[in-house]
Fold this protein.
Amino acid sequence: VPVGASAYAAPYRRAVFTHFRQEEDRYLKSGKLDKELEWMDRIADHVQSGDLVLFNESFASTNEREGSEIGREITEALVESGVEVVSVSHLHMFAASFRGQEGVQFLRAERLPSGERTFRLLPGEPEETAYGEDIYRRIFEDK
């Protein structure tokens, strides 16, 4: 498998599960959060100690407080069961709830003082901003 590095090493995993945000049910039988929770339930039926679960903006289909609490409870249950969890999230309350916990590592996308993005991930504590104001200014004010 190609990687963007000169070398790569990772532990063996029996299984890797992914939980990504999904689109709205086009038949409107259920909402996005309902679909996310159903998907998580299917993962929970199969995940075992030593497996890896990758979350990408999971539980962001509800408000910050509720999504953060759902994500935190599920993540803690998985970790307590011996599952490794990697999560990408803009939910600050979710990320901040893991500050100071053993085995937790935070990574952030590098931003230069000019605001330029390098697309490098560096160790760094969660921030409350997603830099939406920067994007807004670049599009609407820098013309």
The chain has four helices and five strands. The mean pLDDT is 87.
